[in-house]
Design a protein that fits this description.
By secondary structure, this protein is an alpha+beta fold. It is built from 3 helices and 8 strands, in the order E-E-E-E-H-H-E-E-E-H-E. Helix 1 packs antiparallel against helix 2. It is globular and about 40 Å long. The mean pLDDT is 85.
Amino acid sequence: MDYELGRSTRKCAKTGREFASGESFYSILIAEGSKIVRQDYAADAWEGAPRQALGWWKSQVPAADSKKKKPHWAPNDVMLQLFDELAEQPDRADMRYVLTLLLLRRRVLRLEDTEQEGPQEEVLLVYCARRQMEYRIPVVMPDGARAQEIQQDLARLLLSDAA
């Protein structure tokens, strides 16, 4: 099963207001039946991710006059190597979860299913066709400050301005 997550609608799901150039906003992913749905929220309408959210992140609408070079992600093999390294670091399970969401978006991993392992323990079952392996990834939602830290770490490790 492949999921089309799509780009930002540039419109707040709560208020219907269009985002301005350079404005910060939040996005969430929610499972609705067999579909994964993306919803975007203006920062002033953001009340935090709902409990059923698979993941969330903060973004910014590009400035209309932005001439910045588009950043480029590291090759998929490099991302998978980091994914493997994080499996050996239980104290960074939240970072592995966020990286899993990125790999799902890049279609390196495919979401097969979700399972409940306890009253509040959810696990994503993901498949890597490249490796022909299935992984069980605990859903470890980082809080706001930790999410920002993870975003900065992943950007530092996996993004470059070079083509």
